[in-house]
Amino acid sequence: MMLETFKTDLIVRRVNLDRYDDREDVRTNLIESFDRIMAFSEKHLPDPFYLEGSQRVSLRSKIMREIASNVLIHREYMHAHPAKIIFEKNRIFCENANRPHFRGNISLKDFTPFPKNPTIARIFKEIGLADELGSGVRNLLKYVKIYSDDEPVFIEEDIFKIIIPFKEDLVNQHSEDKSSHKTVEKTVEKIIYAIKENPTITINELVKITGLSRRGVEWNIEKLKQQGKLKRIGSDKGGYWEVIL
Q1: Which of 46, 81, 162, 203 is most buried, by the most CB atoms less than 10 A from its CB?
Q2: pLDDT at 60
Q3: Among 106, 135, 170, where does a domain finish?
Q4: Which Pfam families match (predicted)?
């Protein structure tokens, strides 16, 4: 049975400020909720080029991974207030029902992590969707600074809030990129393109390319197989993928 309050409202509000430009009402299990939040952000957030050492790192995925896990792990599920992630022109605004342990803005200097749903946190850590308790705040402070040259705001109240500021021209550039590379931006088409380029590609390699979790990639592949667009030839280790169009 699904709790009535188990809902995450994903909203884009940049042009139509009275209503919304795009919206997704997510009411499913925790893992699929995580993947749908990540996929929605991929449609609506830019991902500027960034290297850590010689490795390309998706700043968008780093930031949204922490937001998604925070919204799903630390929610007060008995509270009627639904979680919201709102993508605006110059910020991401998140709000989540909460059991506050103090009230006011959180800073790294006085931040003490507290496990609000330890069982969910442990499962997310075991499947690779979250790290150690308290790492989310540190990661957001690190990657938001790189992403937007600004700092996130965390507000601990009965409704926990996260504000991720960024420059409006980042979104404008992303809109232009989406217009010219519309098909490449979609997760499913990224997977198909990667498999066409390398039929022996592994799930782990697709995870890196798409920015999804392993479960998210497997879910999309299963969907493509059910639609008759993808077929596995041979064994998991020695076989290859065949795209059927």
Answers
A1: 162
A2: 93
A3: 170
A4: HATPase_c_4 (PF13749), HTH_24 (PF13412)
